[in-house]
Amino acid sequence: MEYQFTNDWFGGNVYERGVEVDLRSVWTALLKSGSYQSILEIGSYEGNSTCFMIEQCGAKNSVNLVCIDTWGGSDEHVAFDHDMGAVERRFDHNVQIASSKVANDIHLSKLKMTSLMGCANLISQNLHNAFDLVYVDGSHTAADVLTDAVLSFPLLKVGGLMVFDDYLWNFGYEMHNTPLKIPKMAIDAFSNIFYDKIKIVHGLPSYQFYLVKTSD
Length: 216
Ligand SMILES: C[S@@+](CC[C@H](N)C(=O)[O-])C[C@H]1O[C@@H](n2cnc3c(N)ncnc32)[C@H](O)[C@@H]1O
Prior knowledge:
Shape: globular
Number of strands: 9
Number of helices: 8
Radius of gyration: 16 Å
Structural class: alpha/beta
CATH topology: Rossmann fold
Oligomer: single chain
Bound molecules: S-adenosylmethionine
Low-confidence stretches: none
């Protein structure tokens, strides 16, 4: 069986200060440096990033993965009339393939709901400090990204890694002519307000934003 992906947002090359950067190589380096056994993903779509994390982390250890997605699409998908039922079926298919490729057990829970409800659900189960890695790639409006960051932060272990996708993504701005429709303002606000509880991971390209939690 083959993967079924119709896009490569996750693995795409991005330009930073005139330099072309392959996000997969950045992630490979990041994931090599630690052990990621429990992962929370907000925004999975067809599972491109999910499968990458399964392949990378599942090669080293068993992985407990929680994927939150409405599988209803975001503004930008609705604009392009994506068939989200088919997207979800491809997610199910793709994660099955990824799990079969690795030697270790992959336990995947799908939370098909808004990230607000999904995070609230995990918080109510007392999963504080439970995740080694949180990947935030759901709705790209500033309000939703800020909400996702604030609600998932308590779920992240001290020492755990939080990654935001699309820090420099601009399409929402071009569509709606307002910074309220892109993640940057939310990531800036979050990283400023939580500055004494995080360490921004330096030396990496900034199309995505990487930070480590240093305290609760
Ligand atoms: C950019 S895609 C994720 C891409 C995926 N991480 C990858 O690398 O291929 C964003 C996803 O977030 C989901 N989404 C949008 N708003 C959401 C919300 N409020 N709560 C949960 N999921 C949401 C969409 O259904 C979509 O599948």
